[in-house]
Amino acid sequence: MPKKRASPKWRSGCPLNASVEVLGDRWSLLIIRDMMLRGFRTYKEFLESYERIASNILADRLQNLMAHGIITSERDPSDGRKLIYSLTAKGIDLAPVLTEMVLWAAGHEDTGNQELVRQMRKDKKQFLAAVRQRWAGEQIRLKSK
Amino acid sequence: MPKKRASPKWRSGCPLNASVEVLGDRWSLLIIRDMMLRGFRTYKEFLESYERIASNILADRLQNLMAHGIITSERDPSDGRKLIYSLTAKGIDLAPVLTEMVLWAAGHEDTGNQELVRQMRKDKKQFLAAVRQRWAGEQIRLKSK
DNA sequence: CAATCTTACTTGTGAAATGCAAGTGAAATT
DNA sequence: AATTTCACTTGCATTTCACAAGTAAGATTG
């Protein structure tokens, strides 16, 4: 179900172009990966992720993802400093995109994380269902502290 | 089947990161779309594609895609000025990635090209088979001129 | 409850990527 | 022989990115 355009105008009406304009940079999809696969939900967690995004870029990408309705944020009720970021339905729907990108690279590049790849290859549908399941509750997991 | 790494080192071993490092810019996937879906095969065709890539960026992206084994090039036997670009098997294997990106955007953004989207939604497998079929011959189609 | 620490950012600055216009050389066409 | 086409380069201005440092609000500590 198409919605109003997030940005005033696309370079073109091609849906692939729209995806590229929203997600075609070196960080956005990694942030989504961290949320989807690793359960990261705070700025600090993203900052400390392996690829070492710069803090200003992270702030910018989070704003962008929110502006496009892919994630939302809310205060952590148990710690007023924290913002908890969540995937929206639109964000969760990126799971198939991430899956295919992972499988492509795993098949053609020298990469690691074979466990994830095995799981994705074994049963793509089930993997996607698991991601949806994980985010279905939408309750904020508090750190066990 | 993992191969030797194209670039000396990735930011991380995550396959998603590898994909993002190779394809995570605003043009590479559009070039692949033009080849895969529209049958474009020359520099001039890419240059004149709707989104208007700059000539120096196009040259750079084609080099990059070749360096990563996603496309190859050869002289047009019937016109020594032209280079004919072709997708490799690795490039063709990006079809599922493109498909999911198209379906995601078509479902969540206000985009056009509904015919393509309908076709992809109707039968994803068949659509992928058609792309493979189209590129299976690997013969150079000469312009009917 | 004041000092310190955490968290989520900003700000400043240099480096790199991008975009635009114009040019170049080899091959084809007229 | 002159012109056109093709696949790029080159030069330069603009934008984005990256790194380091700083800041303000809220939480924790002694």
Question: Brief description of this entry?
Answer:
2 copies of one chain form a homodimer. The first copy, chain A, has 145 residues and is mainly alpha-helical.
Give a description of the structure.
- The structure is a homodimer.
- The first copy, chain A, has about 140 residues and is mainly α.
- The first copy, chain A, has 8 helices and 2 strands, in the order ααααββαααα.
- In chain A, strands 1-2 form a two-stranded antiparallel ribbon.
- In chain A, a hairpin with a 2-residue loop joins strand 1 and strand 2.
- Chain A is globular and about 45 Å long.
- The termini of chain A are far apart.
- Chain A binds a DNA duplex (30 and 30 nucleotides) through helix 3, helix 4 and strand 2.
What is the strand tally of chain A? 2
Radius of gyration of chain A from the CA trace?
16 Å
Oligomer: homodimer
Strand order of the largest sheet of chain A: 1-2
Order of helices and strands of chain A: HHHHEEHHHH
What's the total helix number of chain A? 8
Structural class determined from secondary elements of chain A: mainly alpha
Please indicate the percent range of residues of chain A in DSSP E strands (runs of 2 or more). Answer: 5-15%
**What is the 3D form of chain A?**
globular
Instruction: Please bin the fraction of helical residues of chain A.
Output: 40-55%
Mean pLDDT rating of chain A: 90
Q: Uncertain runs of chain A with pLDDT below 50, 5 residues or more?
A: 3-7, 139-145
Largest chain interface and its two residue counts?
A: A-B, 54 and 54 residues
User: What is the rounded distance between the termini of chain A?
Assistant: 41 Å
Main sheet: strands, sense, barrel of chain A: 2 strands, antiparallel
